[in-house]
Amino acid sequence: MPRELAQNNAMALNVINHQSQSALSGATLSVIDPSTGEVFDTIPRSAAEDVDAAVRAARACFDGPWSHVTAAERGRLLMKLSAAVTAHADELAALEQRDCGKPTRQARADATALARYFEFYAGACDKLHGDTIPFLEGYSVLTWREPHGVTGHIVPWNYPMQIFGRSVGGALAAGNVCVVKPSEDACLSLIRVTQLAAEVGFPPGALNIVTGLGHEVGDALARHPGIDHISFTGSPSVGTIIQQVAAERHCPVTLELGGKGPQIVFADADLDAAVPAIINAIVQNAGQTCSAGSRLLIEAPIYETLLARVGEAFRALRVGPAALDLDVGPLIRKSQRDRVRAFLAEADDAGVTVVATGTVQPDVPAGGFYQAPVLLRDVPPTHRLAQEEVFGPVLAAMSFTTEAEAVALANCTRFGLVAGVWTRDGGRQFRMARRLHSGQVFINNYGAAGGVELPFGGVKSSGYGREKGLEALLGFTTLKTVAIHHG
Ligand code: NAD
User: Fold this and answer.
1) Is residue 181 assigned to a domain?
2) Of 34, 325, 450, 463, which alpha carbon lies 20 to 30 A from 411's?
């Protein structure tokens, strides 16, 4: 039964219309700590009826109190939410750490990023507007940027707070209301943020969260006729399903899918700068990152030198429980570790050489999902390891001899999300940036520290539409043209 939020201390519940509640069926799912493999909480195993309740609450809010909230007031609410996230950053980081196995620094960085997304979009609310268009004599024509209405947000487990921040922050700023379906593997921090939104004064129904399995709750959300826009972040295969389901009723979709990011290092690169960035781009969040730099393309003259340096850094990497805040935490779940190991077994069968591995600490809990980072060399560009997302701390190195070959290798996967280029040659920096099929290209850095301001999204099987930055706001609106004939 619904309970008033103020009277409720349990966190692992849906939040619909400001009320924390179980699934209507009462069913639950276990929450597992990846560092130990032990169950430590439960979440509602919701169903279509719970999604329906959330969408109805959101619609009532959109048509009711939310329609009277001015753009400036939306900004103030988002700024208050940003401040509340900052005030609760340690609590949120601790929840995400336990839920996802994130080392402490990563979990804290994610809480900081969440606050920053709300802050960034708070400032944008009252700067989003339409245009006037010169037209025939006797006409005045203007455009209005209007919210879609009720937006659905399907979130993966790897960066729950960051992805929630960029997606929900942008949607609310543009005047939408939200129903969020977090990953069944990572809900706790997002439930808490939704509670905080209620506490800072968002009207009931503006932000709702419903937990459960993808093929149950996610599917029900994507199919619900009351959802006016879907933001999906996740795997390409589920992205295909979402697209098909949404197409049935012509619902607009933003798809943020996978990646196979190339780090392209030319012989003239500053290797002192490149090596730590190469390591961080593949071990951050244990390699479970859509924008991970999982392929290392090295110009032939420095192939052995750079492999030796990256190998040395790999050997120093330590893997252990999230709370120990080592270089690498556990993977999210056993099946994810099995997947990574299957990739490594395939590489072994194909005769691919291991250059170096990191070390899982000897005393880690036996039930945790630990995987040592692995650096592989001379990976054939057509091998699955060079083509598909491993989603673990595995780096596939290969060499090239010309700029054209580097471009061809970088572009030869089905993905196109993020690419890195390391060179001091200014002309080559621009040529490479132009020729790479990628939503983002970083020159002499990788990821620009997350850059909330920087539009993000893919080409090809990495998806379409953009999140982050001001660009995302356009996707969270629809443009209405008003032509007035006044003579
Ligand atoms: P996933 O596709 O398995 O799940 C993502 C979300 O979709 C989860 O909430 C899940 O419950 C839900 N879902 C699953 N089946 C569904 C269905 N049939 N209908 C509706 N919803 C369904 O992905 P994951 O394993 O959680 O995350 C890893 C993937 O996400 C990787 O491919 C990664 O590259 C991608 N990712 C992309 C970005 C990006 O911004 N491009 C960011 C993070 C992760």
Assistant:
1) yes
2) 450
Q: What is the pLDDT of residues 148-187, one digit of tens each?
A: 999 999 999 999 999 999 999 999 999 999 999 999 999 9
Span from the CA of 24 to the centroid of ligand 1 (angstroms): 25
Whole-number Å distance between alpha carbons of 319 and 469: 34
Same domain, 244 and 287: no
Q: What is the pLDDT of residue 449?
A: 87
- What's the CATH code of the domain at 218? 3.40.605.10
- Does any domain span residue 57? yes
Q: Are residues 252 and 283 in the same domain?
A: no
Neighbours of 385 (CB within 10 A): 23
Pocket of ligand 1 from Cβ distances under 6 Å: 154-159, 163, 181, 183-184, 214-215, 218-219, 222, 233-235, 238, 241-242, 256-259, 290, 389, 391, 417, 458, 463
In a shared domain, residues 245 and 305: no
Taking the model in full, what pTM does it have? 0.96
- Per DSSP, the three-state class of 206 is coil
Q: Under 8 Å CB-to-CB from 246, ≥6 apart: which residues?
A: 222, 230, 252, 253
187 is catalytic: no
Pocket test for ligand 1, best of 164, 238, 240 (most atoms within 8 A of CB): 238
